């Protein structure tokens, strides 16, 4: 175990954020520390997508502590929980990229299913030993995805909390399994869990294997912009800070045993997203070689590619008063500007292993 900063030991019990050095987790931790007095402890294994530089802005912040470790290491997590005595656990820790799950599903089974099981068991042990008042206020919030529901036809109603599970990729199947475990630990053992299922996130610090940062990075480098199939796959896009605000609302007011669907009300086809990125780059950083749209290249579709995702976020709006603040256009503009202003961050994460993965994933397409 490596402790990067001194853990808080005062009377203000922290929130433990697992996977807090990844894309959504890091944004959550940064937003939390900017607006909350409650301290936060970040736990992350620091695999390829976990980047401690994402949290560099919190260096010296007495309300934040970082610990490197694996949610699947029961003895380690047990010791950590005993030491920091968190009031809540927010679980972002997951392998999360569909393409990687197709090429190598075992890591997804290990982290998303076995890791979640072990974290649940360790959390249950910790929760059982709490004084009654602290036991009643404790929460285990599990962050999941709309991909567990499968694929929608063009005319189908959006997913909602009661939609049947029908995962189609190793990634979504592993997340569906983790959701089922979390739900079972509530109904069997009484652990006060909450599940959130979100739509596609985008924004700062997203690893450049995902669509939006991949396209920004490739466009600026003058490389082909690979679009799967006909590019008509539809996703509901959610700006990451809006997602973080929703999670805070759920943590504050959500009911144990409930699920909350979180979406951005921004259904867009992949090709429209890529074209919008090119248009934004044309305005923000014009190229002497012409429009970035010239680099769009259609490649063979990936296996089992879901056609459409969409979220009905009516429950969280009505019960908790949350709604997204950013439109897709405003959020994307902020995202493009962040990547333009933080090219050094992208350069630091695009290492040899990342280039090797790109070659494996796209070479046969």
Q: What would you say this structure looks like, in words?
A:
- The chain has 365 residues and is an alpha/beta fold.
- It has a domain at 2-206 and 237-265 and 309-327: NAD(P)-binding Rossmann-like Domain (Rossmann fold), CATH 3.40.50.
- It has 13 helices and 13 strands.
- The protein has helices at 23-35, 74-84, 98-103, 106-128, 132-137, 170-189, 211-220, 240-253, 270-284, 314-320, 328-341, 343-349, 352-362, and strands at 2-3, 15-18, 40-44, 64-68, 88-91, 139-145, 193-198, 200-202, 225-228, 234-239, 259-262, 267-269, 296-299.
- An eight-stranded mixed sheet has the order 1-4-3-2-5-6-7-11, sandwiched between helices. It has a three-stranded mixed sheet with strand order 8-10-12. It has a two-stranded parallel ribbon with strand order 9-13.
- α6 (170-189) links the parallel β6 and β7 (193-198).
- α1 crosses α8 (240-253).
- The longest helix has 23 residues, at 106-128.
- The radius of gyration is 20 Å and the shape is globular.
- The N and C termini lie far apart (41 Å).
- Residues 1-11 have low confidence and may be disordered.
Keyphrases for this structure?
alpha/beta, globular, Rossmann fold, 13 helices, 365 residues, 13 strands, disordered N terminus, 8-stranded mixed β-sheet, 3-stranded mixed β-sheet
CATH superfamily of the domain at 2-206 and 237-265 and 309-327: NAD(P)-binding Rossmann-like Domain
How many beta-strand runs? 13
Q: Strand order, main sheet: write it out.
A: 1-4-3-2-5-6-7-11
For the sheet with most strands, the description reads: 8 strands, mixed
Mean pLDDT value: 92
Provide the helix percentage. 40-55%
Distance between termini? Answer: 41 Å
DSSP helical segment count? 13
Low-confidence stretches: 1-11
Structural category is alpha/beta
CATH fold title of the domain at 2-206 and 237-265 and 309-327 = Rossmann fold
């Amino acid at each position: 175990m490596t402790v990067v900063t001194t853990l808080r030991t005062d009377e203000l019990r922290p929130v433990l954020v697992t996977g807090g050095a990844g894309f959504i987790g890091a944004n959550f931790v940064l937003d939390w520390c900017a607006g909350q007095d409650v301290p936060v402890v970040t736990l992350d294994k620091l695999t390829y997508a976990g980047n401690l530089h994402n949290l560099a802005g919190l260096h010296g912040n007495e309300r934040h502590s970082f610990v490197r470790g694996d949610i699947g290491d029961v003895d380690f997590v047990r010791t950590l929980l005993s030491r920091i005595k968190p009031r809540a656990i927010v679980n972002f820790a997951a392998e999360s990229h569909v393409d990687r799950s197709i090429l190598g599903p075992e890591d997804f089974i290990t982290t998303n299913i076995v890791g979640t099981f072990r974290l649940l068991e360790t959390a249950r042990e910790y929760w059982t030993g709490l004084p009654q008042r602290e036991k009643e206020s404790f929460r285990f919030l599990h962050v999941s995805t709309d991909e567990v529901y499968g694929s929608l036809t063009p005319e189908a109603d959006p997913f909602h909390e009661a939609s049947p599970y029908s995962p189609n990729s190793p990634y979504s199947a592993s997340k569906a399994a983790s959701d089922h475990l979390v739900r079972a630990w509530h109904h069997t053992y009484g652990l006060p869990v909450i599940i959130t299922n979100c739509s596609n996130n985008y924004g700062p610090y997203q690893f450049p294997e995902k669509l939006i940062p991949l396209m920004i990075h490739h466009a600026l480098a003058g490389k082909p912009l690979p679009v799967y199939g006909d590019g008509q796959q539809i996703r509901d896009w959610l700006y990451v800070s809006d997602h973080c605000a929703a999670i805070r609302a759920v943590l504050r007011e959500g009911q144990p045993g409930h699920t909350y669907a979180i979406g951005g009300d921004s259904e867009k086809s992949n090709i429209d997203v890529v074209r919008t990125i090119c248009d934004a780059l044309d305005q923000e950083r014009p190229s002497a070689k012409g429009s970035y749209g010239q680099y769009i290249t259609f490649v063979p579709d990936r296996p089992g590619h879901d056609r459409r995702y969409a979220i009905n976020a009516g429950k969280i709006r009505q019960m908790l008063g949350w709604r997204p603040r950013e439109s897709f256009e405003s959020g994307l503009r902020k995202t493009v500007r962040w990547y333009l202003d933080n090219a050094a961050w992208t350069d630091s994460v695009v290492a040899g292993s990342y280039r090797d993965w790109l070659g494996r994933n796209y070479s046969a397409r």
